[in-house]
Amino acid sequence: MTATDLAEQAEWARTDEERSARSRHSVTPSVWASGVFLFLVIFAAAFPGLVSPGDPLVLHPTEVLKGPAAGHLLGTDAFGRSVLALLVYGARPALVVGVLCAVLGAVAGSSMGITAGFFGKIADQSIMRFNDVLMCFPGILLALLVSAALGGASLENEIIAVAVGTVPMYARVARGETMKVRRMLYVDAAMIAGLPRRRIIMRHVVPNILAPLVVIATLAVGVSIVTAASLSFLGLGPVGGVPDWGQLLAQGETNISVAWWISTFPGIAITLVVVATNLIGDWLRDRLEIRS
Amino acid sequence: MLEYVLRRLLIGVPLVVGVSIVVFFILHLLPGDPVAAALAGSPATPSVIHRLEAEYGLNRPIWVQYWEFAVHALHGDLGRSYITGQQVTSVIGAQLGATVQLTVAALALTAVIGLCAGVLAAMYKGGPVDHLLRLVSVWGSAMPQFWTGIMLIIVFSFSLHWFPAAGTGGLRYLVLPAVSLALVSVGIVIKIIRNSTLETLSQPYIIALEAKGLSRGAIIVRHVLRNALIPAVTVLGVQVGSLLSGAVIVETVFGRQGIGSLLVQSIEQKDYPLVQGLILFIAAAYVIVNLVVDISYAYVDPRMRVAVDTDGR
What we know:
The structure holds two protein chains of two kinds. By secondary structure, chain A is an all-alpha fold. Chain A is built from 13 helices and no strands. The model of chain A has no long low-confidence stretch (mean pLDDT 81). Chain B has a domain at 88-268: MetI-like (MetI-like fold), CATH 1.10.3720.10. In chain B, helix 11 packs antiparallel against helix 13. The interface between A and B is large, with 52 and 60 residues.
C-alpha cells in the first residue's frame, strides 16, 4: 500500500462538486475538517496535560477494566488507567514517529533519487536497481526485516525500520523530477559558470522538485503511523513508559473478550489521523498542481 | 512472445538475487548478536562462543558467508533454526499451507467483490452504490489491519458468536481472517476497476454498439467487461504481495498458524536463520507472482500481444 495509492484513493473520494471546487483551489469541507482535527491532535500531542482528564500512568486499581462511564469516558485498561488519558498522551509518540519517519524517509529516498537523476548512467542504473529490489518487499516486510535486525524494542529502532520502509516511495519520483530539471537551460548555465555540482543541486534542483516530494511526505505520515503502530502491536516498539497507540491495541487484544473499548478507541484514533493526513495530502497535491 | 517471456524471466532472477543480498546483509550487518541469541542465557565461555561462531560461520568475511548462504539456498538449504535446530525449509513448509489457504481465500474475496463492485460503481456512477463503495474504499484502507481484525472479532465472535475468534481449521476459522485481510485490497481493486470501466464506457465504440441496437446487457458482457477487466490481473497480482505482508498481522491477531505468525514468533525469539528464510521466501514469492502476472498480461491484453510480437519491445 503505497502513498501514491492512498493519494489516488482520496482523489476518488471527491464528489463532482468538490472536484470543481478543487479546480479553483478552494478548500472543501472535508479538508477543513481534516485540518481542524489534525490541529487538535497536534495540540494534544504538544500539551497533553491540558487536554487529558488526568495522568495516564495513574492506576485506579479499584476500577480495572471498566467500560466507558462518567468517570472514565473511554473506560479503563487492565491496570486501571484511563483509556482517554492514554489516548491523549499517545498522540505525541504517534505524530512524532509519523513525521520523523516521513522526513527521514524523504531525505534518504530523495537523495537516492536525486543522485540517480542528476548524475545518470552508472549511478542511475545502480541506484534504481537497488530501489527495484527494495520494492520487492511488500507492505511492512522491509520494516519488519530492519526491526528484526536492529533487535526491536525501542523507539529509535522502530523509527529507523519504518523510515526505511518508506524510502522507495520517494526515490522514483525524485529521480523523475530531477531528470526534468537537469535538462533545463539554467542548470547547464550554472555548470558552465563553474558552480560546484552540489551547489547546483541544492540551489536549483531541490527547490524545483520539492512540491511532489512534500505531497508524498504528507501521505507518508499516515503510512508511517500505521506501520509504526503495527510494529508496536507486534511488540517491536518501545517498551515501558506510556504505551503508544499500537501497544494499547495489543493490550486490548489480550483483553478482547472483556474490554472492547481498549482496542476500539486507539484504532479509531489512528484511522482518523490517517484519513485526515490523506485528505490534506490530496489537497496539497491539487493546490500545488501536481500531476503524478 | 517467447522473447518477451524470457526477458521478463531474466529481469526476475537478479531481483531475487538482490532480495537475498539485501535480506542477508541487513540481518548480518546490523547490531544484534546471533550468538547471544543462540545461547539464550546459558553460560558462555569464550570457547563456547568461538565454537558457535565457527559453526554458524560467523568468523569469516561477510561476502564468503553470503556466498555460502546463496549456494546452500540454491540447493534448498536455508539453514537451521537457532531455537529448534530444524531445517528452515521444513519449518516453512509445515506452516505454509495455512497461509496459502488464507491468502487464496482473501484473494478470491478481493477479486469477486472488488471486480463486481468496481464495475457496478462505474455503471451507476454518482449513485448511492458508487458513494457507498467510495467510502468503503477510502476508509477501508486507512484502517490499520490489526484493528479491523480485532473489531471483527469483537462484533462477530464475542457479540454475535457467528465465528470463532482464533485458531486454524476449516472454513469457519477462515472467514474473519480472510475478510480482515481482504478489506484493504478490496478498496484498491474497486477504485482501479471503477476507473477502468469508466474509461471503457466512454469509448466511442460503445456508443456505436448502442446505436447498432445491441442490448445493454450484451454490451456489458461482451465488450465492456472484457476490456475493463484487463487491469484486473495486474492489480490482483500486486495485491498478492499486500496480502502476504498483511497475513503477518492477521495471523497474529487471529492466532492462526502460518508463515506470518511464524515470522513474528521467530523475530521475537531472535531466530535469525528462520527470520532470514521467511522474509526471503515471502519477497521471492512476491517477485515470482509479479513475474507471472507480467507474462500473463501479454496474453490477457491483445494490444500487448501485438506490440510484443511485432518488435518485441
